[in-house]
Every structure is written in structure tokens, then in C-alpha cells.
């Protein structure tokens, strides 16, 4: 049964035309005055609501246009850094895989690369926790959309934070989880692509993650605007590429080793959850004081999926080209024989 307040409102709305006819049909000036006040108030309220809707649409369009203008510098910077990384990687050839004995055990070339990235992350994390260096680390290694908004596109330090934020972490748990995933999955992609291409892609995935995180913050304008840091965007990129190249790879979840499944299912489910959370359609349950940069994860994962499809298509074209050359040689050999 409906609540009494709703039933009274519904009954009044049904009798409103009757009341209005009585007001205008009556010769009582008091009723005329009440009716005029009622309908003038209704007209004023309708006009006010219409004005508010138009103002909100105008404000939203201005917010979008201003966000697009502010994103020009960060977009150009992201394209420049990513393009430079790939240009530099093309100048180097991958070294042969050698095993080096260290006090921590034997390290392959891929593990050496990952170890260097991990060392850089730990170094920045220690600087972050060292009070005299916190201000400098805050400016260059923490993505702060509010500062970029105030700078109308970003100063040199705030633009560098698009890349620097991928090498900084908030807590020891944060850095452990990210670097553990990097150590587990990074060598797989490194062995497939080689060191130059792996490093170029790592930078590209980090820039893609930071750019989408910044773009969503400027478009949505939540208060306060969230800051972002961590290597999770680049790691999502690595996972996305590995998912395309080895979709049937079986993995387990850290601290839950009994949950085992194919990587394509884990990445598919996680990617959908992150996408819905980024668009405001849901929320991934997390402990208090822990917030996830969903846009950053989606940006890195998108870069990884795109790079994975590119590698797979290039390998397929190369296979077809070699098959065509082999057939042509067989035909020539048969004709000569």
C-alpha cells in the first residue's frame, strides 16, 4: 500500500482542475487572489527550473571545452614521450640472453631489466618518505590534476608527473603488490619483445594510464580532485599484452593461491569492473583509506591490449610472408629441376 503522503498528493493532483475551475468561477476576490498566486508561483517555478537546466547545460559544456583546452599540453607531452621512447628503442638491438650469477641467484636479461625498474621505484619511494625531499617528489612524481588545472595545462614539473607518477608509491603495501606483479609478468613480455621494445612499451603504458586518469579527473571535476601515483597502470598494460599473446596462461591470485584460472578470464573480469567503476556505474569494494585509480588502470590496460593485438598481427603477417617466400622457392626449384 502506498504511503499516506503519496496518496494525498495524488488525490490533490486529480482534484486540481476542479479547484481551479471553482476559483475562477467564484465571485470571491479572495479565491481569485489565491488562484493567481498559485498559478504565478507555478509559472515562476517552471521558469526557474528551465533556467537552472539551461545554466547547468551551459556550465557542463564550458567545463568540457575548458577540459579539452587544458588537455592539449598533456596530450602533446604524452605523444612526445611515447614517440621518443619508440624512436630510441628502434636504434638499439636486443642483446643475447645471458645468465648472470648474483648474490640473489641467477638473473636472465629480462630479470635484469625488471630489477632495474624495481630499483628505480624503490629509490623514488625512499625519497618520498624522506622529509627534506618530499616537496620535490610531490611536484614531479605525483599526478595532481588540480595543479595542472591551475596551471592551465601544466608547468614542466606537473607535465613530467605524467611519467614520474608511475615510479612512485604511497605505502609499502602498495609498492610490494605492484612490484611483485611486475616481477612475475614483466619477464614474459620482455622475453617476447626484447629489452628496447619492452622499455618503450612500459613508458607508453605509463603515459596512457596517467593521461586517461588526468582526462577523467578534468572532465568529471570531483571535489576534491584525486591525486594519482603508482606503477599499476603500466603493469595493467603488461597484463593486457600477455593476455593477448598467451590467453590460456593459468595464473593465481596472490594470497589466494587456490584460485587458479586462465589469464583471459581474470583480465576480462577485472577490465569490465574497472571500466564500470571509471564510468561511475559501480565500485570495487576496498578497505577504508584505499582508493583505486580506475581510469589509470583502464588506460594502461587499453595500451596493453592494443600492443598485444599489434604484436599478434605483425607475427601473422610475417608468417604469411615467409610462407609465400617458401612456396615461391619451391616453385622455382621444381621448374629448374
Automatic annotation (TrEMBL):
It comes from the Eukaryota. The keyword Transmembrane helix applies. The keyword Thylakoid does not apply. InterPro entries: Peptidase_S54_rhomboid_dom, Rhomboid-like_sf, Rhomboid_protease_S54. GO terms for cellular component: membrane. Keywords: Hydrolase, Membrane, Transmembrane, Transmembrane helix. It is found in: Membrane. Residues 158-311 form the Peptidase S54 rhomboid domain. It is a multi-pass membrane protein. The chain crosses the membrane at residues 70-90, 110-128, 198-217, 229-247, 253-279. It holds the Pfam family Rhomboid. One of its GO terms (biological process) is signal peptide processing. GO terms for molecular function: serine-type endopeptidase activity. Belongs to the peptidase S54 family. PANTHER family: PRESENILIN-ASSOCIATED RHOMBOID-LIKE PROTEIN, MITOCHONDRIAL (PTHR43731:SF14), RHOMBOID PROTEASE (PTHR43731). This is Presenilins-associated rhomboid-like protein, mitochondrial. It comes from Neolecta irregularis (strain DAH-3).
